[in-house]
Amino acid sequence: PDLAAALRELRAQYEALAARDVQAAEDWYRARCARLHERAARSQEAVRASRREAGECRRELQARLAEMESLRGAHQSLERQLRELEERHSTEAAGLQDTIGQLENDLRNTKNEMARHLREYQDLLNVKMALDIEIAAYRKLLEGEETLFNIGSTGVSALNPVSNATYSFQPRGFSSST
Known about the structure:
The protein is an all-alpha fold. 89% of the residues lie in helices and 0% in strands.
């Protein structure tokens, strides 16, 4: 009897101990599950936040890619315009260089022509000066002849009373035009 009572008592202790262990295991399991659920909820919130952030980054990336493509197109357009402007300016510069060359040739020809006209003018001026000197020499000779003639005509006019006119030489002024 004692042994059966002792076994019953031992069994009751084991069952109480097993119930306490089961209760402790269930409490630990519930606490552990609660912590895991809490961590899972936080992780899910973090995952949602990460997904939202990834979506925003994706949208921003797409916006930046679209902006980059737009800028690339604008850049290519500007480069094309720059090439066209450079070609046009080089063509205009070549035309202006040709014009400058023609103007320099015209200027050289005009200078040569002016030099030729100046030489001709100088030659004509030299001829005029020579003619002026010759005219002055003839004028002196004529004035000398006139004085001789006047001296001689006074003696003749005394002999001829009807004709009292004296010959007078009026020198003409010569003008030259250039």
